[in-house]
Give the backbone structure.
Amino acid sequence: MKTKLIALLILGSSTFLAAQRPTAPSADWPQWRGPNRDGSAPSFTAPKAWPEKLTERWKVDVGIGYATPVLAGDRVFMFTRRMNDEVVVALDAASGKQVWIAQYPAPYTLIQAARAHGMGPKGTPVFADGRLFTFGISGILSAFDAASGKLLWQKAAPAAGPIFSTSQSPLFDRGSLIVHVGGEKGGALTAFDPSTGNPKWQWNGDGPGYGSPVVAEIAGTRQIITLTFQNLVGVSADTGQLLWKRAFRSRSDVNALTPLVSGSTVIVSGGDAGVLAVNISKKGADWVAEDAWHSDETFFQLSNLMIVRDVLFGLAAEGSGRYVIIDLKTGKLLWSGEPRAAANAAFQKAGDLLIVLEADGEILIADGANHAAFTPLHRYKVSDAATWAAPAISGNRLFVKDESSLALWTVD
């Protein structure tokens, strides 16, 4: 009896100690802008000494498109186009060897104004519960078994999609696949059952924008926040009921950014529409969206902003690409760099460290704690081709997609 009691005490102590140990951040990159959908890379740790150059482990042709690589366990998934087909390929993350490939016909004709941006696809898939969900350039929504590549279900493209083609990345939240389907005059923000593809709820108060939705809990209510064709909205994550709305429409008719959420404040921007911060609150039974600040000093169109501590970093669209730093609480422009710095820049962060992939194939490493200027500490060349897709970051691994190839680079 005494022996059993000691054994139980030891077991209980071991269980307690295991529960107290900090859990290592997940190395997965399951969706657009990473695990938290905000560009943060929690599993990346800066080396004690940065190498002279990064190490290329492998590189494979995967097809064209701007989707971010999606990493789950030992698999990396790419969503691309080859000729008239949209293609999903699963690769072994360590070697780059193909595990499976799936494809389906996706013929599409771009309007003249969108041809410079290519045939896509532009939306990043989302991995959840053993499935991979994709949203193609024409609006084809698909679900694949991530282990085998089997097509589980698929929704056809709408008769009329967004003018400049679909570029939204689906969101998965608590058993719902959320995406804004349709076009400007007939779209619906929709929560789908991931098992069947059947709608669970819809909000059809406006057509889709070109950015992607995020989820946040504000005033005790979980809500889906997104830029639509001409509004910034928040709807109930459970029912799709509209909670609040603030008119926002860039003069270029392209609301293309993913909203940033800091506490109860939502930050957005659009072509020639400045940068807007909106405070969301609940007063009695009513939701209120009040402007915290609005700045016309600069604006962002395709490059998303990044929050580090109490400032915003980003590549502004004005000046043909100008790095800027903005005070998060006031909207004051703290620093503005030289024009024509880059055509596009995908901002990621690991703590205070900024990891920025420019469109010309260079990765910049900068100190996000320095609010006096955006000053890269290191530059690494990772492609001779254009790199418009945001990278996936896992541990010391950087998965970089250029025009038609995917490469694994490591920080050694």
Observations:
- The first helix runs from residue 2 to 20.
- The radius of gyration is 22 Å.
